[in-house]
Request: fold
Amino acid sequence: MTANDLDAGQRMSLDELRSDQLANLKSSVAKVYEKVPFYKKAFDDLGVTPADITSLDDIAKLPFTNKQDLRDNYPFGMFAVPREDVARIHASSGTTGLPTVVGYTLGDLDKWGSLIARSILGAGGRRGQMMHNAYGYGLFTGGLGVHGAERHGFTVIPISGGQTQRQVQLIQDFQPDIITATPTYLLTILDEFHKQGIDPTTTSLQTAICGAEPWTDEMRREIEKSFNINAVDIYGLSEVMGPGVACESAVTKDGPTIWEDHFYPEIVDPYTGEALPDGEEGELVFTSLTKEALPIIRYRTHDLASLLPGTANPNFRRISRITGRSDDLIIIRGVNVYPANVESVLFEFEHLSPHFQLVLTRPGRMDEVTVEVESREGVGAIELDGLNGLVAARIKERLGVSSTVSVLQPGDLPRSVGKLKRIIDRREGLR
Reply:
């Protein structure tokens, strides 16, 4: 990315950024207090008014917003503009309850497109390049979310998720420069290249922009080596905007840069809600500063990370690698375990693939976990002999949890075409 690619928000000095953030925070708080009954009640319950916000530190006085709050106000109760001013609606899948519904004005969509372009340029893309978009389309924000790139000089191929054989064909035929996908689905595409006998390092792809689920540096190295490309992390969630809340720089690859001129980040203790200082790990919280249809105040993402100083964009802080989600935590006999912890251990074994899942059962009084993981193609019985025991011992050593490890054949586990479900809960009465 060159200096000419920097937009006005990226050119602000730190003092200008803080002044802009405070002005937009005051505006957003006043708007939701006036326009959204949920927020007026939440503010009143805490004895807070928009006039109490005189500095950025005052954000701690404001109430949190949770996913359940959006569900309780389903479908349009959180909108701060009349429904007829909403140009697009997205929603979550609603697999665990009512979906969370979010809306966008035309102004919101313009800002979103600008942030997607800013993210792609920072990820190493260049205007005029072609982008193979393998995120899912529909109510999920991933696929349509990156389409704002079209208005900023990029060619977008809307292939969506699935049809994996066709994904390989179009990459071969269209020769795109960039691919966007969840990291686990990109690994599924990688498997299809190998299945078709095509060397994935020979494609035209130069950049992979992956997000929508936590992934480790070990998985990044797997993707980069296998495709001979740069892989960067893009961060977002529909309740805050969608993809493009933050994105990693291809130069530094040290965590997604938060676009702080549009989103104000905090880290809080996931149990007490107490604000934590930069550098300390906790739950990531976002307040939108410029959204029109659905401004969000102190939204609890459940993502666990820390805030770090800016590097590629010095005035904007970074998110550390997401270590997991507070709602993805599994506790096995008193030991806290996240799927990303297990993934890091599995990558230490060259004969194991990145495809795994954790199966929870309760055959008696105690919970048990089985790690189901596939071997790599071409690995024989000799290499696999006793491997499950070695892996279980390493997990016990590194994570302090006892587990059963089942090494499966390549292709035995279901493949992701979007967000992969890592935890399979088969405990009776607890699902």
The longest strand covers residues 352-361. Residues 117 and 149 are 5 Å apart (CA to CA). The two ends are 47 Å apart (CA to CA). The mean pLDDT is 92.
